[in-house]
Amino acid sequence: MKFLIDAQLPRHLAATLKWNGLDTLHTLDLPLGNTTPDWRINEISVEERRIVVSKDADFVNSFLISGVPYKLMLVSTGNISNRELEQLFIRNLSAILSAFETCNYVEITRTSLIEHR
């Protein structure tokens, strides 16, 4: 599975996923960095079959209306430290990967993983 971490999430989250064996990019790795427009992130997601990880509700709207990005993980934790966010992903990594085997839109909160169908 491949991931693309959006600008409002820490680059270290991408590194954490990489350290766990996942092909992961952060928007800072793209030519336009954190100024990469959403349409381009969606394009990359579809071209490279990457799951977009974002806090941005615009991606939810795009996914529900147009079916892009390829797959979406919405981070709905509210304010959370980078360390807590990384630990949340590590604790739930196998469940996240399993959810994306059957689902295209997954949401993570501080207490649950929600598979939107």
Keywords:
117 residues; alpha/beta; six-stranded mixed beta sheet; 4 helices; globular
Task: State the gist of this model.
The chain has 117 residues and is an alpha/beta fold. It has helices at residues 11-19, 38-48, 57-66, 82-102; strands spanning 2-5, 23-26, 50-54, 71-75, 105-108, 113-116.
Architecture overview:
The protein is of the alpha/beta class and 117 residues long. The chain has one domain (2-116). 44% of the residues lie in helices and 22% in strands. Strands 2-1-3-4-5-6 form a 6-stranded mixed sheet, sandwiched between helices. Helix 1 (11-19) links the parallel strand 1 and strand 2 (23-26). The longest helix is centred in the C-terminal third of the chain and has 21 residues, at 82-102.
Order of strands, widest sheet:
2-1-3-4-5-6
Give the uncertain stretches in residue-range form: none
What share of residues are in beta strands?
A: 15-25%
The SSE order reads EHEHEHEHEE
What percent of residues adopt helix (DSSP H or I)? 40-55%
Q: Indicate the overall shape.
A: globular
Please give the radius of gyration in angstroms.
13 Å
Q: Sheet bearing the most strands, described?
A: 6 strands, mixed
> How many runs of DSSP E, i.e. beta strands?
6
Give the domain tally: 1
End-to-end distance: 19 Å
Number of helices: 4
Structural class: alpha/beta
Average the pLDDT over all residues and give the rounded result: 97
